C-alpha cells in the first residue's frame, strides 16, 4: 500500500484544481475558440512559469507552426509566407481574442499547396532520372529558403525525389550483386538493365511518397488545428503539450501499459488496414485466428446487425470501431493472407503491453549469481494506484531474484523516459530504510519533500543503476536519490537527459459545463520543478554518472539543453537525509571501474563509432551522380567495417529467466522469443558486463569491511 496516500493526495489536489479552474465559465459556441480559451486560461493560472503573450511570443509561434507543417519547405511559396507575415506579430492578439484567422488562412493555403504538390511529384516520377548528371542535393532544411515560383517548386521536389530514388537504385543494384557470386559472368538477359533498375527505384519512391500522402490526406482540420495549438503551448516549455482526444488515449495506454480491445497493432497501407502485430497474451492472440498480414475489411459490433466497411477509412476511425469495452464481442471480416475472405469474432479484454513492464533476469558470472531488472518506464494506472504499476512490479521482481540467491542487483534505466512521480518514490523506498527521495517546488509556494516512510528495505545488497542520455525525469530522480544516499553506483553517459520538471494532465472536458462541442482533449502542462535531495536540480544538467562510459548518443544533441526554450537550472536547500551506512567502499569501487573502462577496447571502439555516426548525421550535401554517390557509399562502408567487431563482442555472462517466467514461456512462444533476444543482447552488452563487475567489487568491499569491523569488535 506504500505510496497510496500520495496518490490520494494528488487526486484531491487535481480535483481541487479542477474545481477552481471551472469556477470560470467557458461557453464559446465555436469549438476552436473555446479550446484556445481553455488552454490559455490553464497556462496562465497553472503553469510553473507563465509566459507573456506578446510580440516575441507571437513570432515564435509563427516560425514554429510553419516549420511543423512544412519542415522541408516543399508546400509553401515565398509569396505565401509574405502574406502570412501580416500576422507574425499579431498572433498574440489573436490568442487573447480567441481568434483563429491566422490558422484559417494558413490551413486553407496548406491544403491547396498539398494538392498541387501531389500533381508535381506524380508528374516528376513518371519520367526517368539521369544519374550520370553531376549535381548535388543539400539537405540543410533549416536554412532552406522558400521557393519563389512553380518552376523552383518543381525543382525542389525533383531533387528531393531523386535523392530518395538514388538510394533505392543503389539498393537494387547492390542486391543484384549480392544475389550472384560472379556478376561479371551474367549475360545481358540475366542481368537487369540499368533502365529497368531505375524504373524499379522510381516506383519504390512513388509507393513510399503515396503512403505519406495517404497519411496527410487522412488528416482532418482538427488534426492540423492541434499542430497550431501545440505551436502555442510548446512556447511555454518543451513538455507542455496539447493532446487531441486520440492522442490522450495513446498517452493513457503508454503510461499504464494497457488498454481495452482485441490486442492487435494495425497499420494503414496502400492495400488497406492491415494487421501489423498480434500482441502476445491478448484476446486475438488467445483466439489464434487473426494473423499478421490480414486485411480488415469490415467491423461489426455484437449488438448491431450490419457491418461497417472500413476500407479507405482513416486508421484512427477504424480503430475506434475495433476497440471497445472488456467483455464485448467484435466481428471482423478479413481478407486473409492467402486471399480468402473470413469472419472471426473476438471477445475484447484488457490488453497488457508486455514491453512496457519491468522484466528481470538471473546473471551468472564465475559461479556467482546476480540479478538485472529492466524498467522501460515508470508506469501507473491513474484510475487506481493499486492496479499494476512499476513500483509493485519492481518489488515483486526483487523478491523473486532474492529467492534465487542473487548477490547484487542492476537496475537498467537506459532509454527510460520517465513516468509517474509516485512510483519512483516508492521504488526508491525499496532500497533505503526511510527518508526523502525528491523535493518538489511549485511557483510561489514552499517546497514539498516526497519521502519514503516505510522503514522496511526490500533490497539492501550491492546496487548499480544503468543510465544513458535518454534516461529522463523519473529515471533521473531514482538515479539521483541512489547517488545522493551513496546507496548505488550510477554507470552510463556523461549525464542523463536533464528533465527536471513535473507535468499535470488536465482533461479539458471537465472545465466545460454541458459540453455539446465534442471531446476537447487534454492539456499536459508543467506545474512544478523537482530537485535532488542534495538541493540541486536535474534540469538541463541531468545526473552525472559515477562511472562515465561512451555510447552511440555521446556526440548527438538529444538532451533537454538542446530543446527550444527549456526552463532554467537552479537549486534549493538540501533536504534532511543520512547517507547509507552499510559497508560498501564506493570510492575504491568507482576507481577500479574507471580503470577498467579506460583500458576497455570495446568502449574505445564504441566511442569511435559514436564520433563517426555524428559525422554522418551532420552531413548535409549528397551527390546525385551515381558514380560519385557509389564511391561515397563505399567509403562509408569501408569506414563502417572497422565497427563490425561491435556486434561480435561477447561477455562471459550467462542469462536465464526466472522460474515463473519459464513456465509462462512453455505456453507462449512469442514471450520465449522476446526473452531469448533480450538475453542475447545482454550477453553482448559491455555496460551490463561492467555493472556486474562493479557489483562483484562492491560485494568484496562489503565482505572485507565487515570482516574488519567484526575484528575490531572482538
TrEMBL record:
Coiled coil: none annotated. It comes from Winogradskyella thalassocola. This is Carboxyl-terminal processing protease. The keyword tRNA-binding does not apply. GO terms for biological process: proteolysis; signal transduction. Residues 1-22 form the signal peptide. InterPro entries: ClpP/crotonase-like_dom_sf, PDZ, PDZ_sf, Peptidase_S41A, Tail-specific_protease, Tail_Prtase_C, TSP_N. NCBIfam families: prc. Belongs to the peptidase S41A family. The lineage of its organism: Bacteria, Pseudomonadati, Bacteroidota, Flavobacteriia, Flavobacteriales.
